[in-house]
Design brief:
Elements lengths: L6 E11 L3 E13 L2 E11 L5 E12 L2 E12 L2 E10 L2 E10 L9 H14 L7 E5 L5 E5 H4 E11 L2 E13 L5 E8 L5 E6 L5 E3 L6 H5 L28 H5 L5 H16 L2 H16 L4 H15 L1 H10 L1
Antiparallel strand pairs: 1-2, 2-3, 3-4, 4-5, 5-6, 6-7, 8-9, 10-11, 11-12, 12-13, 13-14
Length: 322
């Protein structure tokens, strides 16, 4: 409310390849409120019908002498949606696990799919009628709700972006709980679907777009080699992938032989098929630079350990190979 910049929020959507072609949505925010580091990251794999194949949702707040960290992972496996939630408050760790048949989760809307769904509503400027969606409350209980009560159109208004005053279309999302609590989010979008502002009703913090997207960002059909269009990210050069992770001189000294070009094309192809690599490294570096831990190796181990628990079979196999 005071107009002070607190952090950054970004959302990207890219095509990905798993057992089937899909989309990967990655949203993240990092910042500090009242000098307390906080943030959230969502990585979701969605079909073109917005069905969730897998999603990881991570939230944290670092208070003086008291930190809260929540991570919820869900993945489709053998006809079930398997959900695992880990909550860390100070030194106390609580774990919850449950699964639901996919038949009862038809129309499930999660944090990841909701961001894309609202963009589609904004592009069409029309609210679908007579639709029922399923959502999960913070306790992982299923909530069946009509589309009208979950989402609603807001009156069209004008917002200033940069030096321009633009017409925007608003969508309101209400997240309900079986305990009677609810939270309301309001988002406004440009005609092309770009998010302009996002706010939780009652919160003094507002996320808003400071500059209009460039023409390249509006029209690109494939992730560019450079990932520096989001402020604070580590740029990825054409011939140097993750310069903070590898020997820059060694890579730059490669001769551009036929074998090298083939290797480079193979690496580029792999990165295109797995955009989660950039999302994962980006989240880790953002959090690392925000917290600035003395022991980087311990911090990395604690950060990546939950990912290993999401795929126990792979983790066991990796442990045996080591």
């Amino acid at each position: 409310e005071g107009g002070r910049e607190l952090g950054e929020f970004s959302v990207t959507v890219e095509f990905a390849q798993r057992e089937q072609p899909c989309m990967m949505l990655h949203a993240q925010s990092h910042g500090a409120i009242d000098d307390c580091p906080c943030g959230t990251a969502v990585t979701a794999y969605l079909t073109t019908d917005l069905e969730v194949l897998e999603e990881d949702h991570h939230e944290y707040v670092k208070l003086e002498g008291h930190s809260v960290d929540k991570r919820c992972h869900m993945v489709q496996r053998d006809g079930l949606m398997v959900i695992h939630k880990v909550t860390t408050v100070g030194e106390e760790v609580t774990e919850e696990s449950m699964s639901y048949p996919m038949s009862v989760l038809r129309g499930l809307v999660t944090e990841g799919s909701s961001l894309l769904l609202m963009r589609l509503i904004a592009l069409r400027r029309k609210m679908p009628e007579n639709m029922t969606f399923v959502s999960l409350d913070p306790g992982l209980h299923i909530i069946n709700t009509s589309f009208v009560s979950l989402y609603a159109c807001l009156s069209q208004r004008q917002l200033e972006v940069g030096a321009e005053l633009l017409d925007v279309f608003g969508v309101e999302r209400i997240i309900q709980s079986t305990e009677g609590n609810s939270s309301t989010w309001q988002c406004y979008f440009l005609d092309d679907g770009h998010l302009v502002t996002r706010v939780q009703v009652g919160s003094p913090v507002t996320m808003r777009l400071l500059e209009l997207p460039s023409k390249a960002e509006k029209g690109y059909t494939h992730p560019p080699h450079t990932y520096s269009h989001i402020r604070g990210m580590i740029p990825m050069k054409d011939s140097v992938i993750f310069p903070v992770m590898c020997n820059r001189r060694l890579i730059l000294d490669f001769h551009y032989s036929t074998d090298h070009l083939k290797l480079k094309a193979d690496h580029s192809s792999y990165l295109r098929q797995h955009p989660e690599i950039r999302a994962l490294i980006s989240d880790f570096l953002q959090l690392l630079l925000l917290r600035k831990p003395d022991d980087v190796f311990l911090f990395a181990r604690e950060y990546f350990t939950p990912f290993a628990s999401n795929h126990p079979a792979d983790a066991d196999q990796e442990a045996q190979s080591l």
